[in-house]
Specification:
Layout lengths: L3 E3 L9 E6 L9 E3 L2 E8 L2 E5 L2 E5 L4 E4 L5 E5 L6 E7 L2 H6 L17 E2 L4 H19 L4 H20 L5 H24 L6 H8 L3 H12 L3 H19 L4 H7 L5 H12 L3 H8 L3 H13 L1
Parallel strand pairs: 1-3
Antiparallel strand pairs: 2-9, 4-7, 4-9, 5-6, 5-8, 7-10
Amino acid sequence: MTNLKLHIDYPHDIPIDAFQWTPETTLEPFHTHTSLEIGCCISGSGVFYFEQKCYTVRPGDIFIVNQTELHIAQSDEVDPSTFIFINFDPSILLLEDEKLLLPYSYQSEKFQNHIPAETSLACQLQPRIMTIHEELSQQDVGYLSRARSILIDISVLLLRNYIGSISSEQWRRMNHSYRELRQMLEFVHRHFGSNIQLADVAQTVGWSQARTSRLFREYTGKSLRDYLAQLRLSEVKKRLVTTDDLIANICFDCGFQSMASFYRAFHANTGTSPKEYREMNGLSEDFEKLGDANEKSK
C-alpha cells in the first residue's frame, strides 16, 4: 500500500479550508495528511477506503479522517461521487478545548469513520459542513469567525457521539497529552512577540526538544518556526488594518527581529508591502464617515 504524506497549506489567516472534490473512478494511492478532515458526500456513489476498512458512499454520508490513517475514496464509474471536505489544523480545537480532539484520536481498526446519511448525527452535520464551505467561498464580513465557530460546534457533536466508545483509561491518557499540547500552544500564542525558541516551548511542558518538535509538527502540520511566522504575520495584518501604529513598531511588537526579514516574509505571504496592504484593506470610507457622524451626534 503506497503511503503519500500530503502537506496542507491554508489560504486563510486561521488554518481551515473547504473544497469540493470528485474522486477518480480508478483507485489512486492511499495517503495521509497534516490536517484533520470531515467530508460529506453531496452526490453520486462510490467507496471510501480506510486502510483495511471499506465503506459504501451515498449522498449525505459523513466521513471522519485523522492525520495518521491511510485513506482514499473512489468514485463509481456510472455515478461518480462528489464531496465537500473541511480540512483544518488540530490547533484550532486544542486552543478551544483539548477534549474536542478526542474523536480524532481513534484506534484505526476499531473506529467507524462512516456516519450514515440516515442517522440523526449526519443530518445535523451536513448543513454545518455546507455552511462552512459557503462562508469560506464567499468570504463575507466575519466569515472566518463564523467558520471557526461552526467547526467547534461540529466537534462538540462528534465528541458527544463518540465519547461512549472511549474507555476511561484512554480518556485519561489522551486528555493528559492534549492538555500538555494545549499548554504548549497557549505559551506560543502568549509569547510570539518575543524571540522564543524550541527550548522555551519544551520547558513549559517538561518535554525534550526532540519530542516537542515532533509532536508540534504532528499536531499543527508545521515546525515551530513556520507556525510562529504564520502567527506573527496574522497579527501584523490585523494591526495594519485596525490601527495607525507605525509599521516598524508593529514589526518588532509581533516578534520579527529585523525590518528586512519582516518585509521579505510579508511580501512572500501577501504579494504586497505592509503599506500597500494597509491602504487596500484598511477601514473603508463608509466606516470612517459613520465614525464622524457618531462623533458629531454626541
